[in-house]
Amino acid sequence: MAKTSNRDSYKKILSSLQTHNKWFENSIPLIASENIPSPAVKEALLSDFGNRYAEGWPGERVYAGCIYIDEVEFECMALAKKLFKAEFADVRPISGVVANLAIYSAFTNPGDIMIAPSIPAGGHISHGKKEHSGTAGLVHGLDVEFYPFDAEEMTIDVDKTKDKIEELKKAGRLPKMAMFGGSLFLFPHPVKELADFMKSHNIYINYDAAHVAGLIAGGRFQDPLREGADSMTMSTHKTLFGPQGGLVLASAQYGEAIKKATFPGLTSSHHIHHMAAKAITFTEALEFGKDYAKQVIKNAKILAEALSENGFKVLGERRGFTESHQIAVNVLDYSDGGKVEADLEKANIIVNRQLIPGDIKAGRNYFHPGGIRLGVAEITRLGMKGSEMKEIASFIKKIVIDKKDPKKMISTIKKFRKDYQKVHYCFDNKLGAYEYVKLR
Ligand SMILES: *Cc1c(COP(=O)(O)O)cnc(C)c1O
Q1: Does residue 424's CB lie within 6 angstroms of at least one atom of ligand 1?
Q2: pTM attached to this predicted model
Q3: Does the Cβ of 33 fall within 6 Å of ligand 1?
Q4: Residue 290 burial (CB < 10 Å; 0-12/13-18/19+)?
Q5: pLDDT tens digits along 30-44
Q6: Which of 11, 105, 149, 408 is within CB 3.0–4.6 Å of 261 for a Cys-Cys bond?
């Protein structure tokens, strides 16, 4: 066997990076948790901030060298508060999971009970039980109960949730925290409808906006901090089109506890280049976020309707399929979510398989679930609108329903993709969305 030199490995890695960019340039990216950041965000990620430490709070750092970092971080916090109309912002959590952990650490103790959505009902693994290696259970020792879920309405059942909490209370298991928000997230959660009830039982309310933060910022989904949530956690890279990262927002009274949980509790370096990139994202969201959120939701509805017209079983039909950036499709008539995901990938259409309500009871698992999930956040940022949504639905139909060879679709999709190579809803877009930047 030929020996691989270090230089060969080095070249191979760099070449994979380049090939990946090229692939995405020619693909239809429909992963609901992904987006494409602006050239300015990429510039911040390349800056020297990425090589520095700035432990602590701006103005109270542990090391010198933080003059400009502090400038940017103060601005970043102010922009986050303005964008989400929040009293307190901690911009340091390095991801959505770390943001959730900051809230668990600040407001619960191991052994406490949290009520959250189950995974087939849209919950995220960071809300999950210990036996599923969920962050809440495994890392913070929370005992997780699931909300009763209405699969027809595709949301949390308000009356049954009240009954469940009364029952838990009788059994001496009253939750300490209620988690709203999720990963399969088509319609707003009933925060307003449940907040008074939760408060009357002293239950702390967090809303996990990882998926829908950009829609909330654009005023198009729900407004959890006005509806009764005590805090809101999120990722900064899904519908909020920034760098990978996290953010916590809260009423002022919770600020001190959250600050300590983030540092020294959960971070040492908070990835300062990502913090700067978040600040840039907030300026873009303040300037372009309303138009973006409106177009995202419009696109999602059009794609959902077109898929339904093409014969697909799209979830949430009774309510108009979706009010977010997501669409969930039951594909069991054709095969399963795993097979459909793989077939579409061969045609450069990137989606993810998805557990949907009823899967676990029917014995289906994460590898072969009943559904797929599609998101339009990234294709909207590339400037696509209604007619492109209809074309995408017809591509998906050809592969999944008509069983056309996916490889034979690649050239059509490449051609379709050619006109959407710039990032929209940002101040500057000289660099192509997937243009590879070579610095060597
Ligand atoms: C994606 C997601 C997260 C995790 O975010 P990361 O930034 O990947 O850590 C947390 N909660 C929900 C609901 C999510 O969908």
Answers
A1: no
A2: 0.97
A3: yes
A4: middle
A5: 999 999 999 999 999
A6: 105
